[in-house]
C-alpha cells in the first residue's frame, strides 16, 4: 500500500514539476531565443554589441537553471561548458565589445541557442505529456459525473470516445482512468527524458570538452609556473638578506678574532660570543625558511601529523580528525598542507573564532579536507582574499575549494583534490 | 657514563663524540642509521642515548621511532632526541609513557656545551630536558587562558624553566634569586594551576605538560 502511495506521490510530484517547468520552457525559451537572435542580428548595427552580453548572460542563467533542476530533480548531470573571461577584461564600452566577441566565439553559446529551439518544441511536448497524462483523466471523470449533459445535442470527443450520453460518459471515465495509470507510470520518466534531451543539446561535444580541458590546463600551468617562480624569488631574497648575510658577518668576526686572539683575548672572547649568536640566528632563519618551503613534519610523518602539528601551533582551540590509509604524492601533500595552513591563518586573522575543526580524509579517489570555525562568518572567495590564492594552488592538481560562510558564522572551507594514496 | 649516539651527518656526529668524551662520557657506539641504532640500544644497554630524529635509510622520523620502540622494551631508557625543528606533537609522544628520562632539544643547543651536557646528565638521571621553544609554544598557546593569565610575570619565568626540566637550584642561579624564593614561586604556581606540589623534576614537567595538554 505504502509503495503504491509513494508511487502516486512521486508521479504527482513529477507532474507538478513538469507543469511549472513548462512555463519556463515555453515562455522563457521563446522570449530568450527571440531576444538573442535579434540582439545578435543588431550586432551589425552596433546596438547589439552592447546588448548581446546581457542577453546571452540571461540565456546562460536560464540554461544553468535547467542544469541545476536536471541534477536535483532527475539526477541528470549536464556539464557547464562556458569559457571563462580573461581576468584583465576592460570595463565600459570596449569591455562590452570584447565580451560580445568572446561570447560569440564560444561554441557553447551556439549550443545554447540550439537548445532553446529544442526546448520550446520537443522539450515542451515532453513536459506537457508528463503532466497532461495525469491532468487529462480529470476531464473524463467530470464528463461521466454529469458534464455529458451539455453535449447531448452535439458529440464531444474525449480522446477517441464520442461523448453524448451517460454510457459514453462512463466510457470516457474508463479511458481517463486508463490514461491516468499510464501517467502514473510515465510521468517521471518523461520528465527525466526532458532533461536527457536538454543534456544532449547542451553538453559539449567531446572535442569541445577537450578544448575546455586544454584551456583549463594552460591556465593552471601558467599559475603554477608563476607561483613557483615567485616562491623561488622569495627564497632567494630570504637567503640573501638572512642566513647568507649572517654567515658573512660571522666570517668577518672570525677573521677579527684570529687577529685579536693574542693581542686582546678579552675582546676576542666578546667577538666569539657575537659570532655564536649570529650562527644561532642564522639557524633560526633557515629553520623558518625550511618550514615555508617544505615543513619537516610533513616530510617525516605525512599530511595527517603535519596538520596535527600545525593545529597545535594555533592560538585557538583546535580539533583534528584524520582518516588516511596511506600517503598521497609529495606535491599533493604539500599543496594540501599549505592550503590548510593558509586557511587556518585566515581563521586566526579574520574569523574571530575560538574553536576550529579540521577534518582530513580520503574516499573514492578524492582527498577531502574541511576546516570549520565558529567565528563570525562572511568569508568569500574573491579578488585579493587568501582563499582565491588557495583555490589557485589547488587548481594545479584539479582540486577545488568551496566556502560556506553565512554572516554570523560558522565558516566551513572544503577542499577536494583527486589523488591516489600509496 | 655510557652513551649511544645516532646522527647521520659525519661532522655533527664527530663533534658530539668529541664533546661528550671531553666531558668524560664513554661512547659505547656512534651510529649512522636507524637499524644500527636499534641494534646498539638492544645490545649495548647504554646509560643514555643521544638520537637525531631524522635518520637513514628512510630519512623520516626513524630515530624517534627507534627510540620509542626501545623504550617500550626497556621502559625509562634515557633518550635525548635532537632535531633541526621541534614540534609539540613529538614532545607529547615522547612524554606519553610518563616514565621520564626524556630530552627533546634543538640541534642549536649543542652550541652551549655546558648546558647541553647538563641536559644529557639530567636525562640520564631520569629527569627531563625540554627545549625552551617547545615550552614557549605551549605557553603562548595558553596565554589567553585564565589559569595561566593569573600568573605574575616572575611566576611565568619560573614556570618556563620548571617546564624545561630545571631544578629549583638551577632556576635560582639563572634568575639570580634564592632557592627559597623559587620554592615559594613554584608552590604558588602549582596552587594557581590546581596541581599538587612535588619536588621531583620529572613529575613537575609531566604535571605541567598534562595540564597544558588538557586544553
Automatic annotation (TrEMBL), chain A:
Name of the featured protein: histidine kinase
Catalytic activity, reaction form: ATP + protein L-histidine = ADP + protein N-phospho-L-histidine
Protein source organism: Streptomyces clavifer
Membrane-crossing segments per the record: 12-34, 40-59, 124-147, 167-186
EC number: 2.7.13.3
Pfam family name, one: HATPase_c
Every Signal transduction histidine kinase subgroup 3 dimerisation and phosphoacceptor domain range: 231-298
Broad enzyme group: transferase
SUPFAM superfamilies membership: ATPase domain of HSP90 chaperone/DNA topoisomerase II/histidine kinase
Automatic annotation (TrEMBL), chain B:
4-aspartylphosphate sites (modified residues): 52
Pfam families registered for this protein in UniProt: GerE, Response_reg
PANTHER family per record: TRANSCRIPTIONAL REGULATORY PROTEIN NARL-RELATED (PTHR43214:SF24), TWO-COMPONENT RESPONSE REGULATOR (PTHR43214)
Annotated Response regulatory domain residues: 2-122
Protein name listed in UniProt: DNA-binding NarL/FixJ family response regulator
Annotated keywords: DNA-binding, Phosphoprotein, Transcription, Transcription regulation
Single annotated GO MF: DNA binding
SUPFAM superfamilies attached to this UniProt entry: CheY-like
InterPro entries xrefs: CheY-like_superfamily (IPR011006), NreC/VraR/RcsB-like_REC (IPR058245), Sig_transdc_resp-reg_receiver (IPR001789), Tscrpt_reg_LuxR_C (IPR000792), WalR-like (IPR039420)
UniProt KW Phosphoprotein keyword: yes
Ranges of residues in domain HTH luxR-type: 144-214
Keyword Transcription regulation: yes
Alphabetical list of SMART domains matching this protein: HTH_LUXR (SM00421), REC (SM00448)
Amino acid at each position: 500500500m505504502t509503495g503504491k502511495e509513494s508511487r502516486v506521490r512521486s508521479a504527482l510530484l513529477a507532474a507538478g514539476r513538469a507543469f511549472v517547468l513548462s512555463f519556463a520552457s515555453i515562455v522563457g525559451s521563446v522570449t530568450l531565443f527571440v531576444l538573442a537572435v535579434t540582439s545578435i542580428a543588431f550586432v551589425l548595427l552596433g546596438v547589439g554589441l552592447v546588448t548581446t552580453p546581457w542577453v546571452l548572460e540571461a540565456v546562460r542563467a536560464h540554461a544553468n537553471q535547467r542544469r541545476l533542476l536536471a541534477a536535483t530533480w532527475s539526477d541528470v548531470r549536464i556539464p557547464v561548458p562556458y569559457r571563462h573571461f580573461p581576468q584583465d577584461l576592460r570595463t565600459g564600452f570596449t569591455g562590452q565589445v570584447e565580451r560580445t566577441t568572446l561570447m560569440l566565439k564560444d561554441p557553447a553559446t551556439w549550443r545554447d541557442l540550439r537548445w532553446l529551439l529544442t526546448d520550446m518544441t520537443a522539450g515542451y511536448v515532453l513536459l506537457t505529456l508528463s503532466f497532461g497524462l495525469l491532468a487529462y483523466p480529470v476531464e473524463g471523470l467530470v464528463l461521466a459525473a454529469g458534464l455529458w449533459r451539455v453535449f447531448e445535442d452535439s458529440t464531444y470527443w474525449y480522446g477517441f470516445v464520442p461523448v453524448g450520453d451517460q454510457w459514453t460518459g462512463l466510457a470516457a471515465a474508463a479511458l481517463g482512468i486508463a490514461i491516468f495509470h499510464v501517467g502514473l507510470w510515465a510521468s517521471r520518466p518523461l520528465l527525466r527524458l526532458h532533461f536527457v534531451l536538454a543534456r544532449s543539446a547542451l553538453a559539449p561535444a567531446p572535442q569541445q570538452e577537450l578544448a575546455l580541458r586544454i584551456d583549463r590546463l594552460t591556465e593552471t600551468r601558467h599559475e603554477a609556473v608563476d607561483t613557483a617562480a615567485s616562491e623561488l624569488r622569495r627564497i632567494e631574497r630570504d637567503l640573501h638578506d638572512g642566513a647568507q648575510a649572517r654567515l658573512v658577518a660571522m666570517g668577518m668576526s672570525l677573521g677579527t678574532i684570529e687577529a685579536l686572539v693574542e693581542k686582546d683575548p678579552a675582546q676576542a672572547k666578546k667577538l666569539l660570543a657575537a659570532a655564536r649568536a649570529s650562527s644561532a640566528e642564522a639557524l633560526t632563519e633557515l629553520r623558518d625558511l625550511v618550514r615555508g618551503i617544505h615543513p619537516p613534519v610533513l616530510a617525516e610523518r605525512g599530511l595527517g601529523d603535519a596538520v596535527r602539528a600545525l593545529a597545535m601551533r594555533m592560538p585557538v582551540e583546535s580539533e583534528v580528525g584524520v582518516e588516511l590509509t596511506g600517503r598521497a604524492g609529495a606535491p599533493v601533500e604539500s599543496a594540501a598542507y599549505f592550503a590548510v595552513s593558509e586557511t587556518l591563518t585566515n581563521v586566526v586573522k579574520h574569523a574571530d573564532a575560538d574553536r576550529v575543526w579540521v577534518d582530513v580524509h580520503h574516499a573514492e579517489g578524492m582527498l577531502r579536507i574541511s576546516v570549520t570555525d565558529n567565528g563570525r562568518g562572511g568569508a568569500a572567495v574573491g579578488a585579493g582574499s587568501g582563499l582565491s590564492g588557495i583555490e589557485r594552488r589547488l587548481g594545479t592538481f584539479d582540486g577545488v575549494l568551496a566556502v560556506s560562510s553565512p554572516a554570523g558564522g560558522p565558516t566551513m572551507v572544503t577542499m577536494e583534490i583527486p589523488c591516489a594514496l600509496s | 657514563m655510557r652513551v649511544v649516539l645516532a646522527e647521520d651527518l659525519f661532522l655533527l656526529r664527530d663533534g658530539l663524540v668529541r664533546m661528550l668524551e671531553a666531558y668524560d662520557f664513554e661512547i659505547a657506539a656512534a651510529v649512522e642509521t636507524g637499524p644500527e641504532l636499534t641494534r646498539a640500544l638492544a645490545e649495548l644497554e647504554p646509560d643514555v642515548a643521544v638520537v637525531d630524529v631524522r635518520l637513514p635509510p628512510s630519512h623520516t622520523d626513524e630515530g624517534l621511532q627507534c627510540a620509542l620502540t626501545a623504550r617500550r622494551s626497556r621502559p625509562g631508557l634515557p633518550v635525548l632526541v635532537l632535531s633541526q625543528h621541534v614540534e609539540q606533537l613529538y614532545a607529547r609522544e615522547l612524554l606519553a609513557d610518563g616514565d621520564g628520562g626524556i630530552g627533546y632539544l634543538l640541534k642549536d643547543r649543542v652550541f652551549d656545551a655546558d648546558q647541553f651536557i647538563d641536559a644529557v646528565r639530567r636525562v640520564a638521571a631520569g629527569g627531563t630536558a625540554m627545549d625552551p621553544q617547545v615550552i614557549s609554544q605551549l605557553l603562548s598557546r595558553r596565554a589567553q587562558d585564565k589559569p595561566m593569565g593569573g600568573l605574575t610575570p616572575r611566576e611565568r619565568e619560573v614556570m618556563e624553566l620548571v617546564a624545561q626540566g630545571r631544578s629549583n637550584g638551577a632556576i635560582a642561579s639563572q634568575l639570580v634569586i634564592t632557592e627559597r624564593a623559587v620554592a615559594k614561586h613554584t608552590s604558588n604556581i602549582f596552587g594557581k594551576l590546581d596541581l599538587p606540589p612535588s619536588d621531583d623534576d620529572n613529575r613537575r614537567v609531566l604535571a605541567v605538560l598534562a595540564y597544558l595538554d588538557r586544553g
